[in-house]
Amino acid sequence: MKALKRTPRPVILLVTLLILTSYFMMIQPPAAAEGNVVDIKVHLSGEPVLAISGSSTYHGTLLDTKNRMWNYEVYVTSTEGENITGASPSLESPATGNLTISNKTFSFDLMAPLEPGDIDININISSFTGDKWYKTTHTIAVVRPVTISATIDNPSNTAVTNATVRFYVDNDHIDTQIVDQIPPGDSTDVSAEWILAEFPPGWHDTRLEIDLDNNGEAEWTVHDRFYVEGGGTLILYLTILFGLIAMLGGIYYISKRKMR
């Protein structure tokens, strides 16, 4: 029987990691509901924290013991006078729709403002006749995220295709990026955002794993640390070159693809 051959592929040897500034705020609990009906309730699910200018889809469910038909209206407002330029849906252009007897769910896309701060998601429910109404407000935090950017160089004469790059902070997985292709002698940029409601002071560990074969095992791992002072001040523009010794020595680490 003919033996299967394993095709070698070059691992990426040089990664430049850049950590950008960030600070965070705590998310606020939902406010009490208002209205002239007491037998309905709205449950809202979605991200409690968004990055500035970020977006996410939120899902609502109306619980109505009498299974009636309703209109809904959703818009965002400032919690304490923050600048919410760029946020949507707005009071002037809300997300609207109908909740029927057979469907009491709704969804809407929320765009965060350009500046950090807390914003309120206002959900107004009203009867078709207009005589019954219910309003609830949910507060979410909008923050400046930690952006971790990596420049990945491929110094070999073989293209790298469909490599998986995983980002970790303090051993927590925050994102995965798929690199479609890095031509020989070329480079590509990947990035991930670390978003928290509160960013604890002290040292934090960052790890980036490169999985060439997409088998769950990293052929190349790089590490870095950054420090946050009390009050959320982050050391700015920390840049580390990884794999530099291997590059200078002209040694290319060769990984082997799993047998097919």
If you had to describe this structure to a student in words, what would you say it looks like?
- The chain is mainly β and 260 residues long.
- The chain has two domains: 8-23 and 145-256, Sandwich (Immunoglobulin-like); 34-143, Immunoglobulin-like, CATH 2.60.40.
- Helix content is 2%, strand content 54%.
- The chain has one helix at 244-248; strands spanning 8-10, 14-19, 34-35, 40-45, 49-51, 55-64, 70-78, 95-99, 105-111, 117-127, 133-143, 146-153, 160-169, 172-182, 187-194, 202-211, 220-229, 233-234, 238-242, 254-256.
- Strands 3, 5, 7, 8, 10 and 11 form a six-stranded mixed beta sheet that branches.
- A hairpin with an 8-residue loop joins strand 16 and strand 17.
Features:
Immunoglobulin-like, mainly beta, 260 residues, six-stranded mixed β-sheet, five-stranded antiparallel β-sheet, single chain, 2 domains, 2% helix, disordered N terminus, 1 helix, elongated
CATH class of the largest domain: Mainly Beta
Uncertain regions spanning at least 5 consecutive residues = 1-13, 21-29, 233-260
Summing up helix and strand content along with how strands pair, one would put the structural category as mainly beta
Strand and helix order: EEEEEEEEEEEEEEEEEEEHE
How many structural domains in the coordinates? 2
